[in-house]
Amino acid sequence: AQSVAQPEDQVNVAEGNPLTVKCTYSVSGNPYLFWYVQYPNRGLQFLLKYITGDNLVKGSYGFEAEFNKSQTSFHLKKPSALVSDSALYFCAVRDDNSGYSTLTFGKGTMLLVSP
Amino acid sequence: IAGITQAPTSQILAAGRRMTLRCTQDMRHNAMYWYRQDLGLGLRLIHYSNTAGTTGKGEVPDGYSVSRANTDDFPLTLASAVPSQTSVYFCASRTGQGGYEQFFGPGTRLTVL
């Protein structure tokens, strides 16, 4: 089965500074990778995905992610953090099982942006 | 309706009671999913449906059942609730054609006492 790991439970950054939320993956074959954001008491919102092509993927709200095959990583980045970016972030990988295709999620990283 | 709706928003339930969580989507997506979210464990797949009329078990299916009578609705039933089923439940869907990103509902917070 495919898996992703988010090594940090929490990331703290000051507003205006660049942010990085880390994700590493373990897959057989080509990875399909995703980032989601969850604001308090809300469902998950899709941010961006990597299927193929450019290693730098741009998504919603100014976020981007860099796919690195040699390091098996897919880190989420933003050049200048906003307080409103504070939320729970999930990395996910497409997982093909017997009979269905779904997403396998990491445990999440809480991003806290201080004013 | 726009996207995915879930009902109820929250519920407190006595152990042993039967409960159905509702999920409706208006995007005509083929595939639908139920997850539970628990602190420190992320999201875990309970059941899925690739298309109307078919369902399957995910990672943590015990104690739950689903049905998919039509494209839009995908209810999740707890036949006899237990405290370990206290969680936040999310329904999701995707088109079933490429992309593979899923779209999520707002969730149902369930407490079993």
How would you sum up this structure in a few lines?
The complex is a heterodimer of chains A (115) and B (113). Chain A is an all-beta fold and 115 residues long.
How would you describe what is shown here?
The complex is a heterodimer of chains A (115) and B (113). Chain A is mostly beta strands and 115 residues long. Helices cover 0% and strands 56% of the residues of chain A. Chain A has no helices and 12 strands. Chain A has strands spanning 3-5, 10-14, 19-21, 24-26, 33-38, 44-50, 56-58, 64-68, 73-78, 87-97, 100-105, 109-114. In chain A, the strands form 3 sheets. In chain A, strands 2, 5, 6, 10, 11 and 12 form a 6-stranded mixed β-sheet that branches. The relative contact order of chain A is 0.33. With 113 residues, chain B is an all-beta fold. Helices cover 0% and strands 48% of the residues of chain B. Chain B has no helices and 11 strands. Chain B has strands at residues 4-7, 10-13, 19-25, 31-38, 42-49, 56-57, 64-66, 76-78, 87-94, 103-104, 108-112. In chain B, the strands form 2 sheets. In chain B, strands 2, 4, 5, 6, 9, 10 and 11 form a 7-stranded mixed β-sheet that branches. Chain B is globular, with a radius of gyration of 13 Å. Chains A and B meet through strand 6 and strand 11 of A and strand 5 and strand 10 of B.
